[in-house]
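Entry for the shared binder. Reason: the reviewer on the internal report wants the predicted structure included alongside the sequence.
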Amino acid sequence: MKHMNSEVKEERTSNKKRIDLFLVPIVLIAAFLNLFKIWTDEYANAYYTAAVKSMLQSFHNFFYASFDPGGYVTIDKPPVVFWIQTISAKIFGFHGWSVILPQALAGIGSVLLLYVLVKRTFGVWAGRFAALAMALTPIVPAVSRTNNIDSMLVFTLLVATWMLFRAVRTAKFGWVLAAFAMIGVAFNMKMLQAYMVLPAFYVFYVVATKITWKKKIAFLTTATALMLAVSVSWAVVVDSTSADKRPYMGSSQTNSVLELAFGYNGINRLTGNTSVTGSSHKQPAQTEQQTASSETKQTSNSSADSSQSSNQRKSSSSQKMQAPGGGNQNGMFNTGNPGPFRLFQKGLSDQISWLLPFVIFSIVGLFAGVKFKGPYTTKQKESLFWLAWLLPVAVFFSIAGFFHQYYLIMLAPPIAAFAGAGAVALWSMYKQHNGWKSWLLPGGILTTAALQVYIMSPYVSSIGVAPIAGVGALGVILALVLAVRKQRKNSLTNYLGAAAMVVLLAMPAYWAMTPIIYGGNSMLPSAGPDSSSGMGGPPSTATNSKQSGFNGMQPPGSSSGNSSSNNQMQPPSSSSNGGQMPGGSSNNGQMQPPSGSSNSGQMQMPGGSSNNSQMPNSSSSKSSSSKRKSGGMNAEVNQKLLNYLTKNNTGEKYLFATTDSTSAAPYIIKTGKPVMAMGGFSGSDPILTVSKLKAMIKKGEVKYFYLSGMGKGGQSDVITWIKENSKEIPSSKWQSTSSSAQQGPSGNGTLYEITLK
């Protein structure tokens, strides 16, 4: 106990010392990467931004995280992060940057927290290098520059980690409770993903605390019970509320938060087997869910910076999108094929894996000589914590059936911690000539440089040969020179070691800057020279420069685009060919439109209208001076349609109804008026029935329906009834032909009017 008290006194004394001047530039780097030009992303991820707009309008919408101002359906995540975003928008005004700001600050906070966590045990230089590695991990700023949840999730879990470490140092049970309660808060950010760190928390507390087993079990049981209570608190309140007094729980099939947590946002992420069952429509289980295809559809509609040019990708077999487990190495959403080396495949490796070989060598060094029965040093105990965080999460991403690239931010803290702690540990072993351990440093440098060359090689057309050759050559040279100079102790050797660390961080730093250089995608954020496409993978060499970020997509009511050339991506169609998007038809691995059009490689909107929808190339203009209405759902609205709906509204609650959130979000953001996404996010939620819709129409709640052919899912009967009992509005009254309307989300559709008495 005396030892514990001395540690606490030492901590208080260290906190009174001056700010670490070396930390200042690291924080400034993180601030630049996370904050610079976020004001150019006018609407961010429009699906979530629309929810913030709605949540600003009433406490009812705020509490339930309603997607629309009418309180019809919620978004597909719990509310805590969106509560924070709404508060930010309330303080600073409703802007894209104001909903991004909390995540950007969380990214900076994670860098600071990692410095604090690593510094105390492994030394100040370990803390500095860990913080720098965290700041420069490409996926960290890529996610933090959006209004997606994951940056805030990681920050919250690091706060919980700080509490757990303090609980062990002070032997106070209150900190244990606080740490596990914080994981419960994180659960209310992104549900089961927050529990990925639990193995680390349990293992560390059992190994690191010097109390009896009886107390360990009692304390952990109590803390776990508290965590579970906090985790399900909001879900229990929502699920206990009568369904007619709250919004439908978006992306669930039974209108239940708990089903959403343990199904759609839980086990189904691992299995990838997420059948969509509607009230009157049933689909078989597939390797990816219908919502995933909707995300691709929405991302493909994303508009990058208007000054950027875009080019087609090559339709080569190495770049065709396939479902996890298919024959293609890119996999669905460029997440590769499941297997032990998945994190080294294209699409994932350039987001997170730049330092993985060095981390592996660091783990070997940090655990060298450790005996299973102990005793363990503080360094070994905390190394075990980071290892118990790293391994389960890495295993999950190696085998999971459905996730996106930006989820990989969960691996950033343990990788950065091992990079910092390992750099100091391996350098110490190198300087002390500890037999085989002294070879770990040059070995780690050499293998890490080799992996980085491998990661960069698909991007040679966009970044050139020089940086690839430079990293490879310098990595080999520095590793060999350090190996030769093992017996020499002078300043030159120190400089060589520092230079090696700079070389290993150079290209991750460039990759981390690409969302600023090329523009990013707020729907599916990723880093890399093609980050604005949001689709990952190596860039192409196509030459069409007229379209940017899938320009050519159209908002409700815009005129149809022009026919496009071959080799363009297509949304899913209706076939079960292995390795395709759900329902995708076989066309040499290409995605087909729902309408069944046979134009090879074209991206087509529902209803069969073809568009010049090309992916932006990494050679796109680097200018991002104009605001980007990105985020998978371009927030451009058809002003003529909006004017028509506003003028002819006779007191209806909803401006109009549409199949899914893609069409609804831009109009919610623009007007703040209720727009009904009848089938929720992807259009597959079984929310509405014909009888319920009839009742809403008779009450005068909705009159106009915009149908584009997407997202029928569990509402096919409803859509059929609408078409059979409505009056079609002539397109000349509401369809826009202006060029500014050619970038919207939902393409060629039809406007209907229904009035019942």
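Summary line for the report: The chain is about 50% helix and 0% strand.
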